[in-house]
Amino acid sequence: MTDLIASAPARATGSGAASGAKLPAAGLAAAGLLVFLVAWEVVPRLGLFNPLMLPGPSAIPAAFWSELKSGAWGSAVGSSLGHYTIGLALGALLGVVFGVATGMSRLAEEATAWIVRVLRPIPGLAWVPFAIIWFGVNRTAAVFIIAIGVFWIVFFAAHGAVRSVERDLIEVADAFGFRRWHERLLKILLPAALPGILVGLRTALGQAWMAVVAAEIFGVPGLGQRMMQASSLLATELVVVYMLTMAALYGLLDSAFVALQNWLLRWKA
Amino acid sequence: MESVIDIRGLSLAFERDGHRTLVLDSLDLSIARGAFIGIVGASGVGKSTLLRVLIGLAKASAGEVTLSMHSGKRQPLALVFQDARLLPWRRVVDNVSFGLEGGGLSRAERRAKALDALGIVGLVDLADRWPHQLSGGQRQRVALARALAVEPEVLLMDEPFSALDAITREGLQDELVRIWRLTGKTILFVTHDIEEAIYLADRVVVLAGAPGRLAADHRIDTPRPRTRSTEASADVVASVRRHLGAEKLIDGAAI
Ligand SMILES: Nc1ncnc2c1ncn2[C@@H]1O[C@H](COP(=O)(O)OP(=O)(O)OP(=O)(O)O)[C@@H](O)[C@H]1O
Ligand SMILES: [Mg+2]
């Protein structure tokens, strides 16, 4: 009895301290950001740095506003998101199809083993020359570069996830008479492999974003290209606008993906 | 009487690192349609393996199993695994309706049948939970409902009640007997519990030895409804114990 009475207030103060600790953490983060912004503003103003080389944060909103009004920002974002989405979807689809196929079938795995070994170590950007030769400097080339990077990540994630599905679960399908490959695939393998595939997709989401910027720096229209134009005109505040745009878009996409992932995997403990 | 399962000279060996371990040795067993068979035997004797052969998850090394089924069902047998093996990404009710998919029923019909089966095991209230939100015993009951839902001709049960408390277990035993008498299913019920086998079954077979052989085969004629007292079948209990080689152990524990 005494134990119970003694432990109740102890728990109450414990949880109080925990919720009290949350607030300072958020406050600390805000303060840190503020210090960072102030330092960023002050350094060029003190003449420690040529303001042309590094614009202060106060110059950013105006630059953003005029870029937005001219419509350049919107069309750059639209164009980037366009080939990002197509490249991501294409690479992810092919990655899942081939990853699952090689995960399900020894034959498919062995038949492709050497092709995979040769092609996989080639960095995505090493395909830029061929992308330009085959497609020119245009959206198709960007989609191609993005899709290749995404493909390998998703391929290996899907392959590994399917290979590691527990035999026990496959036996459940067998025991209930679902023994054809597509029954196994749809009823057991895909749902069981989904967590692993989603982890791969999330990595691919970030990888694809880098590929977008890389492809655009070579001249495909979009955020990266607009940023390079601004830099050649020494419009450094615009460069910063586009850098922040990239960060914000990626943050948004990643949060949306994580929300989707949590919903799809709501069955997990 | 016509047999629904006929096992002739069934042997099964596992190959491991070049070693061959014989698990089941020349088993002969004929199972009458509508029978309730209890299968008892020590741990590792091959009880689960036998059920796995019958449902086609394991292949016999020698001998043959003949099934004569009446229904044209895609899968006329159902197995309640020793571990529940629910599919974690399906809610309880969708786990139970798993075996009904591809059978031409609408989604609503499947759900209705699944809820009926959940009613039998007393878990309708948990229909919309995820498997990870269940206790071990609840999971086992969902697995039983999943097997009942397909209305199999032959129900194979691998220690289905071993994880349950006495009250729930007794309730489910009686429910199982009721379903059996109502539907005329053939039931093969594996258990460690001799009293449970004798309370439920018409016939108790004992597997013993390594490799597992058929060591004894008892008819249980006690009229139904039965009482849980084993007085009437004390001689059977003693005989089964003897075949299990458990007599000494139990006498030892009693002292
Ligand atoms: N895949 C396998 N490979 C090799 N040996 C196996 C395999 N599966 C089972 N065995 C062996 O076969 C024997 C029989 O196993 P089984 O699972 O049928 O026993 P059981 O009678 O069901 O035991 P329990 O009462 O403990 O469940 C055991 O000795 C086990 O070690
Ligand atoms: Mg077993």
Low-confidence stretches of chain B: 247-255
Chain-averaged pLDDT of chain B: 90
**Alpha-carbon distance between the two ends of chain A:** 34 Å
Q: What share of residues are in beta strands of chain A?
A: under 5%
The biggest sheet of chain B, with number of strands, parallel, antiparallel or mixed sense and barrel status, is: 6 strands, mixed
Tell me how many strands of chain B there are.
Answer: 9
- Helical content of chain A stands at over 70%
State the share of residues found in helices of chain B, binned by percent: 25-40%
Portion of residues in beta strands of chain B equals 25-35%
Low-confidence runs of at least 5 consecutive residues of chain A: 1-17
Number of helices of chain A: 10
Which structural class do the helices and strands of chain B define?
alpha/beta
**Per the principal axes of the C-alpha atoms, what is the gross shape of chain A?**
globular
Morphology of chain B: globular
This entry's quaternary arrangement is heterodimer
| CATH third-tier fold name of the domain at 1-76 and 198-255 in chain B | Rossmann fold
Sequence of secondary-structure elements of chain B? EEEHEEHHHEHEHEEHH
Largest sheet of chain A, if any? none
Number of helices of chain B: 8
Give a verbal description of the structure.
The complex is a heterodimer of chains A (269) and B (255). With 269 residues, chain A is an all-alpha fold. Chain A has two domains: 49 residues; 205 residues, Orthogonal Bundle (MetI-like fold). Chain A has ten helices and no strands. In chain A, helix 3 packs across helix 4 and helix 3 runs antiparallel to helix 8. Chain B has a domain of 134 residues: Rossmann fold. Helices cover 34% and strands 27% of the residues of chain B. Chain B is built from eight helices and nine strands. Chain B has a six-stranded mixed sheet with strand order 5-6-7-3-8-9, sandwiched between helices. Chain B has a three-stranded antiparallel sheet with strand order 2-1-4, with helices on one face. In chain B, helix 5 links the parallel strand 6 and strand 7. In chain B, helix 3 crosses helix 4. Chain B starts with a strand and ends with a helix. The interface between A and B is medium-sized, with 19 and 23 residues. Bound molecules: adenosine-5'-triphosphate and magnesium ion. Adenosine-5'-triphosphate binds next to strand 1 and helix 1 of chain B.
